[in-house]
Amino acid sequence: MPINAGPEYGAAERKYHEAKTPEEKLKALENLLRHAPSHKGSEVLRADIKLKISKLKLLMAKQKQIAKKSSHSFTIKKEGVAQVVICGLTNSGKSYLLSKLTNAKVAIADYEFTTKMPELGILDYLGIKLQLIEIPAITKDFMYKDKGPMFFSIIRNSSLVVFLIKQASEINFLKEEFEKANIRLDKKSPNVIIKKQASGGINVIGNTNIPYAAIVEKCKNYSIYNAIIEFHENISLADFDSLLNPSTVFLPLLIIKNDFKNFNLEDIKNNIWNKLGLIKVYTKTPGKEKDHPPIAMKQNSTIKDLAVFIHKDFLKNFRFARIWGSSRFPGQVLGLDYVLKDNDVAEIHLK
Ligand SMILES: Nc1nc2c(ncn2[C@@H]2O[C@H](COP(=O)(O)OP(=O)(O)O)[C@@H](O)[C@H]2O)c(=O)[nH]1
Ligand SMILES: [Mg+2]
Predict the structure, then answer these.
(1) Residue 8 — very low, low, confident or very high, per pLDDT cuts 50/70/90?
(2) pLDDT at 337 exceeding the cut of 60
(3) Is the distance from CB of 158 to CB of 83 less than 8 angstroms?
(4) Ligand 1 atom 9: the closest Cα is on which residue?
(5) Ligand 1 centroid to 118 CA: how many Å?
(6) Domains by residue range for the chain, with CATH
(7) What percentage of the chain reaches a pLDDT higher than 90?
(8) In the structure, which protein residues have their CB atom closer than 6 angstroms to any atom of ligand 1?
């Protein structure tokens, strides 16, 4: 106990040493400061208590931040060959559609905001598994609300966005909210190529209506000072901005209007598949029927991609493939470079 300190100070000091949680410690320190002697000789003591208080406050703020982050992080275990997010306003029928398309058991209710966390289900499309994710209702300024960034990060990591709407006016509302999260829907990434350089400033090739000064200014915003920018198409300043922004994502969009009668589930499934931009290819063994399920592949995949996918040794031992479907005649013999199409049947022959 410092010189000239009263009995209250002693009690406060004991309390401080007994304090366990940061909150208790902070309270005790503030109490200690109140009872600390205020003469010149105790300046060092008071400064020491103040320092302890500010350090503790900093620590508590950090812990709060971490707690906030972890309570808001929600990771989805990816399943199936693609993730499809179902988005819309409250009561647009998202849970209902999810329950019709998948095995998910979801809460469907006619009161608002029933779904607070993403709901998951697996859609079986001709044997190909697609993961469907219902995102809780999108509200105004969703990106700036507490769980918004987390839900938008699930959307960003998906392959296709579905808007389930009751009225056409909802489309623009939703699109605006997605723009705030830097998600561009149903827009191809612009055909403008940015080649960063070590020096030489900003050089523009090709035709654009964007003034040179605006291009330089935008580049500066993203810390790009030296680059060759090739405009292969004329784009708006906003599109140029989203191209520079490394967090921009471009996703396909499927709009489904809910007329609250009957969903045409077969149409919806086909539309989802077509929008995903994937192809399904069936393999086959000579003299037998095609295998099930088909294999989902990216568009423009070749026989080589298929061979590698089936088995790493297939490429080494590849002789030829017979293709039914997109080939000129059924069972045509083709080589590794042949580009496969949706629904092709492939019979691979090995050495
Ligand atoms: N009959 C019928 N009812 C629907 C349809 N879509 C939604 N509903 C009803 O509308 C209400 C809200 O649906 P819900 O799926 O919970 O909406 P969410 O908030 O978008 O998930 C529920 O009472 C559903 O049963 C539909 O296509 N047909
Ligand atoms: Mg719901």
Answers:
(1) confident
(2) yes
(3) yes
(4) 93
(5) 16
(6) 7-72 (1.20.58), 82-186+252-257 (3.40.50.300), 192-244 (no CATH), 279-350 (3.10.20.30)
(7) 69
(8) 88, 90-96, 108-110, 114-115, 137, 258, 260, 263
